[in-house]
Specification:
The chain has helices at about 35-50, 70-80, 110-120, 185-200, 210-225, 250-255, 265-270, 310-320, 340-355, 385-395, 450-465, 475-480, 480-490, and strands at about 15-20, 20-25, 35, 55, 60-65, 90-95, 135, 150-160, 160-170, 175-180, 290, 295-300, 305-310, 325-330, 335-340, 370, 405-410, 420-425, 430-435, 445. The chain is built from 13 helices and 20 strands. The chain has about 500 residues and is α+β, with helices and mostly antiparallel strands. It is globular. It has 3 domains: about 15-90 and about 285-360, Sulfite Reductase Hemoprotein, domain 2 (Alpha-Beta Complex), CATH 3.90.480; about 95-280, 2-Layer Sandwich (Sulfite Reductase Hemoprotein, domain 1); about 365-490, Sulfite Reductase Hemoprotein, domain 1 (2-Layer Sandwich). It starts with 16 loop residues before the first strand and ends with a helix. Strands 1-2-5-4-13 form a 5-stranded antiparallel β-sheet. The chain has a 5-stranded antiparallel β-sheet with strand order 3-14-15-12-11. Strand 14 and strand 15 (about 335-340) form a beta hairpin. Helix 1 runs antiparallel to helix 8 (about 310-320).
Length: about 500
């Protein structure tokens, strides 16, 4: 732990990342979930060794903040003592109800394990960047459609039984469809795609693959079983089959002579996904009750993905007393409590609400991404969480499902790296507003950080006045235009 991971890396327990409020570690339990007593133990460790703040990320990972080099070592020892095994390597993610959802088409966990094993076998971990990921989605009540992945496999029903739809580069709505195949072929295509990415370097993703490479992947399953592929040769930079004529040439796969790579947004713009994925219903929120075979699961959200560790201790203690047997981490910054009855769900919701957790999917706080900001983070220039709470209370009607508001303490944009409808970013000039951009963009207008919520309230008031019947907030803002929005923010 002498050298800490750089920003953009994955801050695993063994490689904490330096942030503005100290070191940060991210945990993904091998078992998929935690015993209530284990989460309590982790939260107590966070209080002893960190700044007492714990987070659940947009992808469903657990983070502990505010560590030092020494306290990170102590934390790692306590995690071991709690018997919590954590994953390392290329993330191969499954849904939070994987294996226990009676509505899922197939249990995705066995296929996910086979992909992990294959990735390890061919030595890809060290050759892929820290943000490369795979999603294996068995379907059901809580899909992984909203989670971005380099490779995604989704169970579909077919005449021949369960098949797996394989796509790359994006969320379910935007990813480029490659093939629908059995589990063996799905694993082979996933690993072949990762090997192509590895050839392009540690900054590469599947959106950097060329059309020829994607086409070769789409037909890969019919011609090239994984077992005949040799290891990647760093010196040659190509993947080839040992059987003459059995696969596309090394050039088609390695693309070493300058074929034009597809744009990072090509898959998103085309929307070419199987069976009209653009028409799928929006993914269900993980917040709320879910019926399982013999019990219920209850999803409870962390406001802006963050909570004091003591609040988590109190909630997990109450859940344990009510009979919860397991707590799973869920995408969209939530926790799922398992083995509950409907009446117990109601009691746990009351406790969660009193502790400040998010207990309804329509809570306006779910539409805001906010980093710790000041005073928690030394890099922050504005009090992001206080601004977010005020906006959620005063301008909740602006925060419908069409819009994301990002409040960033600085230009790094940790809480929401992508573009948002509205972004407030702190710098030496105060709280700047970026319309349809990221925290790294040049703000169009500024106002003092302490008064930023009032500027957003002015935008919300204009939307109330100008919105057409049935029009979303995002559509109304687009019609008003970026210049008008920025002026509303400045002058109100």
């Amino acid at each position: 732990m002498n050298a800490f991971s750089r920003r953009g890396a994955c801050p695993a327990l063994s490689a904490p990342m330096q942030t503005g409020d100290g070191l940060l570690v991210r945990l993904n339990p091998v078992a998929g979930g935690l015993l209530p007593k284990s989460l309590i133990g982790l939260a107590e460790s966070a209080l002893r060794h960190g700044n007492g703040i714990m987070e659940v990320t947009a992808r469903g990972s657990l983070q502990i903040r505010g560590l030092t080099a020494e306290s990170a070592r102590l934390l790692a020892g306590e995690v071991d003592a709690l018997g919590i095994a954590v994953r390392s390597g290329v993330p191969v993610e499954t849904g939070p109800l994987a294996g226990i959802d009676p509505q899922e088409i197939a249990d995705p966990r066995p296929l996910a394990e086979r992909i992990r094993a294959a990735v390890d076998e061919v030595g890809l971990m060290a050759r892929l960047g820290p943000k490369v990921s795979v999603v294996v989605d068995g379907g059901g009540q809580l899909s992984m459609d909203a989670v971005t992945a380099d490779v995604r496999l989704r169970a579909v029903r077919a005449d021949a039984g369960v098949q797996w739809s394989v796509s790359v580069a994006g969320r379910a709505r935007t990813a480029k469809q490659l093939a629908t195949v059995d589990a063996d072929a799905a694993r082979d295509i996933a690993v072949a795609a990762l090997r192509m990415v590895a050839e392009k370097g540690r900054e590469a993703h599947t959106h950097d693959l060329s059309e020829r490479q994607l086409n070769s992947l789409a037909s890969w399953h019919s011609v090239t079983p994984l077992s005949v592929l040799p290891d990647i040769s760093p010196s040659r930079g190509e993947i080839g089959s040992s059987r003459a004529g059995s696969s596309p040439s090394a050039l088609e796969i390695g693309e070493s002579r300058g074929d034009k790579a597809i744009s990072p947004l090509a898959g998103e713009m085309s929307g070419r996904t199987e069976r009209g994925a653009q028409e799928r219903r929006p993914p269900r929120s993980p917040i709320g009750a879910f019926k399982l075979s013999k019990s219920h699961a209850l999803g409870i959200g962390l406001p802006f993905g963050s909570m004091p560790a003591q609040n988590l201790i109190d909630l997990a203690t109450r859940a344990s007393h009510l009979g919860a047997t397991e707590i799973r981490l869920a995408p969209s910054r939530a926790l799922l409590f398992l083995s509950l009855s409907p009446s117990v769900c109601s009691m746990l919701l009351d406790t969660a609400a009193a502790l400040g957790f998010v207990t309804a999917p329509i809570d306006p706080r779910t539409r805001i991404a906010a980093c710790p900001g000041t005073p928690a983070c030394a890099s922050g220039r504005i009090a992001t969480r206080a601004i977010a709470e005020t906006i959620a209370k005063q301008s909740s009607d602006l925060l419908d499902a069409s819009l994301t508001l990002h409040i960033s303490g600085c230009a790094k944009g940790c809480a929401h790296p992508g573009a948002a409808t509205l972004t407030l970013v702190g710098d030496e000039n105060g709280a700047g507003l970026v319309v349809d951009g990221t925290a790294k963009a040049l703000p169009a207008r500024y106002r003092p950080g302490y008064d930023a919520a009032r500027g957003v309230a002015g935008i919300a008031a204009a939307v109330r006045r100008e919105r057409h019947q049935g029009e979303t907030a995002a559509a109304c803002l687009a019609r008003l235009g970026a210049a008008a929005i920025a002026e509303l923010y400045r002058r109100n």
